[in-house]
Amino acid sequence: MDTRSAIAVLDGPVTLATVDIVVPVLNEQRALPGCIRTLHAFLDDSFPLPWRITIVDNGSIDGTWRVARGLSREFPQVYARRLETRGRGAALKAAWRDSPADIVAYMDVDLSTGLGALFPMVASLASGHSELAIGTRLARGARTRRSLRRELVSRGYNALLRYGFGAGFSDAQCGFKAARTDVIRPFMDRVEDDGWFFDTELLLLAEHNGLRVHEVPVDWVEDLDSRVRIVRTAVEDLRGLARVARSMSTGTAALKVAKETELTPTHPDAVVARPPARFASFAVLGVASAVLYALLYLLSRELWSPAAANLAALTLTGFANAEARRWTVNLLGGHRTTPHARAALVFLTDYAITTMALHGLPPGERLSEVATVAGTYCLLTLLRFWWVPKR
């Protein structure tokens, strides 16, 4: 099915908002037919708005592209396109930028998210209630089945976004999102990531520029054959967060958003409302220093007692943290006013509280020790934000 005929499906006499549902795929020749047939049947039976499905094959080396073309010939409302660039973000940028629909959405090919949440998510956009809508596995009313490891990683990551960036959304990485095309299209050139961090970067930039994000609780079942590499993805996400924090701090994350469209006006405070960039930078540095502190403690613990290892880790982390904060303050155009006496008091307080937290733990429980001191350090870092002068 070519682009012209795909657009014709959406260009009928109806006045309802049209919806383009994108399914990005990479080497999914086995999963793709079942996904598209299930999704097509659901939309055909119960979705009240004009729709089409767009399959984006971004760099598959198996038979995925052949399968996608076959599905587009089988179903008139299925459109297939191929990219050589890999990455979910790259697929969504291309499809959302070129879509003829009023509303663009996407979902993962494994259909882990229940399709019953699709219309409530899209309806908030068609009604003008919001400009961006996401499915969430962490809000009240959501039902999920996944491993404890993924649950802890997800909750920790989203807590970092809430407390570090002031994010109002609860689940950045659920593969179930929709947006108003006219509003979101300019963001496709601003979002830098082409991989898994695309979702987080888009949401942070959207809120930073005053867009309203609507959340819909979803039913979600973990795909045990998932291609996501949690550790590698987490490292890439931390790098992405540092980059976004810097862009917010320097003002380059600001984007002029259209205020009048065919559906409804966008948020009147677009471009003005944004979370505190200084808090974002502080949080990113705080997380990095907490990780460094935990690693140094674990290494030092091989040689010394808990108290001595804690002192060594805090001292080395303090030096590294001071240099990082000096760079951040210079970047933001501020100046340091924290006197040496206060810095010393902060250090002694950190050491006293983290050492007290270690007291009473069973001897030899290294992981428990690291979790205790790292958790305490993170809490103290957050509290210091409100006490230490910012300029």
TrEMBL record:
Domain Glycosyltransferase 2-like, chain residue ranges per copy: 21-184
Pfam families: Glycos_transf_2 (PF00535)
GO molecular function: glycosyltransferase activity
EC annotation from Swiss-Prot or TrEMBL: 2.4.-.-
UniProt xrefs under InterPro entries: Glyco_trans_2-like
Coiled coil location: none
UniProtKB keywords: Glycosyltransferase, Membrane, Transferase, Transmembrane, Transmembrane helix
TM spans (from-to): 279-298, 304-322, 343-361, 367-387
Highest taxon, organism lineage: Bacteria
Protein name: Glycosyltransferase
